[in-house]
Amino acid sequence: MTEPLVKIINARKAFKTVHALRGVNLNVYPQEVVFIIGPSGSGKSTLLRTINQLEHLDQGAVYFNGVDVTNPKTDIRHVREQIGMVFQAFHLYPHLKVIDNITLAPRVVKKVPPEVARVKAIKLLEKIHLPDKIEAWPEQLSGGQKQRVAIARALAMEPTLLLFDEPTSALDPEMVKEVLDVMLELAKEGMTMVVVSHEMGFAKAAAHRVVFMDQGEIVEEGTPEQIFNRPQNQRTEKFLLHVLH
Amino acid sequence: MGPEVKDEPPVTIQVTDGVLLPKKDKPTIFTSWAIAFTLAIALLVILPLVKPDPYLNILATFPSGILVTFQVTFSAIVLATLIGVFVGIGQLSKITLVNRVATVYVEIIRGIPLLVQIFFLYFALGRFFRLQDFPAAVLSMSICYGAYMGEVFRAGIQAIPKGQMEAALSQGFSRSQALRLIILPQTIKIILPAIGNEFIALLKDSSLVSVVALTDLFRQARNYASVTFNYFDAYLMVSLVYLVFTLFLSRLVAIMEEKLKTHD
């Protein structure tokens, strides 16, 4: 078996008195698309954010490409360069045009020459089907367009892993599909992705593995088919009933 | 403090120490601004026309003082803004020493009257190192307003959604790169009106530097008054001139704020 790209070992974290994570183990392999589902407060976003250390663990370790990212001696910036993240609320840089949103990090962090970064950004905008928005300001975009630009911004760093934190939860229903389509394309190209989301249809189409979390623990994991159609655990079953109405 | 008060919402009063900005969508403030501004201008024009002696004579002594007042104000606001950036960032720093230095600076400066600070720097510390009048005036104003500006920057930085820093960090930016390239440019836009308010306050407070040997606008008026013993007219005219400046600037800040809003 190939080495996992992400290896989370016994991750524990508490926010004041709430136990967000209580001993989570999870491996993500190259080119795998892993879905994390679960009720709010189950710790799924926290788990995702420990991978690029936006959240620090109390105990346990997270390895990325064999490097322990929880070790204070690790050059975390270099690790983050290789991990793209897409947020629920987009977090585009509002004072920069679309093109600069995409090229800023490559130019500053990776020292890519501006012309090279620009050419790459234009290609990415074509890929997300927004070639005419190069000079647009974020505020002029719809929610779905913003999220697609956010994906392009993450891709501009040529990451080996993409993290999605509820990428469609803040979108109007009619805009969800355009974002999912872009994500589906990425999955087909072999991008390694960890996705926190409740888009079951998308999970069925793209996910290799679905992980169900509840109260800071992984309750059950398996193929989308197993989890959605034949859940073994009562908690999983109950949650799915809730989500699928 | 009894239990019967429990259900009542807490009373908050919103009063700023800055000027009220005369925006068109705030009719009452705009009207009072217009009345005050028109009145001040009218008096400044009519009085010297009707009675050139003393009013025109008083005004004639002002130009060099106005120049000094503006020189002090501009120099101090630039320096204070620079200090403010560092103090504001310092107050939010996770490095304990930096944080303490910045917050203690703000606490100390805000607790001492500006006039006392000017005396301290010019007369008390002046025994050890002699500062020129102009640098002394600018320095004391900047040190004082640097603390207030620090608060403005701190509030401005805190007003930027946390997600901006997280997005930047997730892309591999360092904290200082993120501050410089992503957080501060957004902060400046938010705090421009507040900086404008500090500028107006600084212009007014610059009259305090007339206690050191600097011949600013207010000092010119005092000089005139002490020579002619015509205190009433001298201080009336200088009040009107300050009023016209501050009212003009406050409207300018309001217009700027309206412009910034329409860009959103």
What is the N-to-C succession of helices and strands of chain A? Answer: EEEHEEHEHHHEHEHEEHH
| Quaternary structure classification | heterodimer
Mean pLDDT of chain A: 94
CATH superfamily heading of chain B? MetI-like
Query: Biggest sheet of chain A: strands, sense, closure?
Result: 6 strands, mixed
Tell me, what's the shape of chain B?
Answer: globular
Q: How many H/I helices of chain B?
A: 10
SSE run of chain B:
HHHHHHHHHH
How many strands in all of chain A?
A: 10
> End-to-end span of chain B in angstroms?
44 Å
> Any low-confidence stretches of chain A, pLDDT <50, length ≥5?
none
Give the amount of beta strand of chain A, in percent. 15-25%
What does this structure look like?
The complex is a heterodimer of chains A (245) and B (264). The mean pLDDT of chain A is 94. Chain A is of the alpha/beta class. In chain A, helix 3 runs parallel beside helix 5 and helix 5 runs parallel beside helix 6. The radius of gyration of chain B is 22 Å and the shape is globular. The N terminus of chain B is likely disordered. Chain B has 10 helices and no strands. Chain B has a single domain, classed as Orthogonal Bundle (MetI-like fold).
